[in-house]
Amino acid sequence: MYSASPEESGLTLIEVLVALLILSLGATSLMMASAKSSGIAGESFYYSTALAAGSDLIELQRTLLRRHPELIGDAGFSKGPPVLSGQDCTVQPCEATRLQIFVQSSWKCSLGYAESCPQVAGLRRLPRFDAACSVEPTSREIRLQLEWQVRGRSRQLALGGRLP
Amino acid sequence: MAGEGAKSAVGAWRSVAVRQDGVTLVELLVSLTLSSLTLITAMELLGGGMRLNADTHVHSSLYDKAQHAMLLFGNAVKRAGFKGCGGDSAELVSLLRADLQSIPELNLYQPYAIYESNRDAPGWAPELSELPMRVGGKSINAIDGRHGIRRDRLQQGSDLLVVRGLGFDIMEITRPVAPEGAVHVVDRRGIRRGDYAAITDCRYLELHRVTGYGASGGVVRLRRAHGLGRADNHPVRLRESLAFSSFEGLGPWLAPVESEFFYVAASHASAELPALWRKQTQRRPVEVIEGISDLDLAELLDDDGHPLGVRVSLTALTRSSSRQAPLERRFIRHFAFKNL
Fold this sequence. Notes:
Chain A is an alpha+beta fold. Chain A has helices spanning 13-67, 96-109; strands at 129-136, 141-150, 153-162. In chain A, helix 1 packs antiparallel against helix 2 (96-109).
């Protein structure tokens, strides 16, 4: 009724260790895949944030320069913290040049420069985005480049548009 | 017989037990320790992964709420002041009895309005005196009745945005408009009795109320007979309306008047939970996104008083099982006006 093979034996320590190693490798790969998928979701979030912010700026530039074409020469800006105009154009109307500076700084503040922008205090934007914009007066093309860092890697998004 | 059988079975078991190579106690303990360590590590990794997933889910839900809200704001701001012609040259002619400036739903003179809250004053309730109040009568039209915005449920410190313009559903008028009577279009595209619509040829823009409709021969006849209500068609103005009796240039077209009110108020689900509400022209307000707790609006104005755009800052909040306090996140977008 009960017949056990005389050769039957338990697992040796080496066998157990190899099995555990394989198990650990499997579990680690699974975790890494999960972390990677979360990272990809995060990256897509940053891309869509950058895309939305970039589209907003291009539309603002188009509207502003349609009304004030004389400002086309100063429509570009470089990377770095926003240049604050000292006048809040949401509180009182601003002269066109000041409005242009205010719009650019307000937009840049929303990218994550909360420490230097009182109007966006409390905004937590991780990672911080940086941006540079250029407007070509002859071709009337707007070029915007957004940049941000994710886990030590630089990511970029370039957007373009044409003035009306 | 049975006793012999049992004896031989025990003997066989003994002989197997003797020959089997099991693990020693030390090997067993080492294996157990290693298994435990592996299990603990795996559990920690799994727990970490689950926490990460939960966090990602919470943040993406916040982001989705904000994105949805911003999409609504963006579309509304882009449509503000739209008069069907891509410019603002059309001169508004009201055929209604009411003073348009006293009816926020129809005040096309002012493409948008921001009701800013006073964040320092407790019990803030915006002065929406110009919103139409109940004026009696039995009209079911919200314009003649209550606006439906419950001021007592408005979120303290949160702003209110109103945008106005013509809808993008523009209908070509198939024959000259009679001074008083019907407007003929091929497809009425959802315009119902009681709605407000504008006839425009890009020079003038006449605002009137649709009082009925009927179809014949593939053409929809929108009636605009005068009425007696506060915001019904004015009989004299209808008769005097000759601006579109001759077809000059392109058009005229007919388009519905659309206004949108956005504000933050207590949710249907819970008075403690704020939500973004939207009221469209004559419809009752509806809760569009739960978990929007604050709306801060600022217009960008140049020295001529021309609005360039609106800065919309909103706070989205969500509750998760892993956190005690709700998680809040602020989002900011800048929207440019396209038609102002």
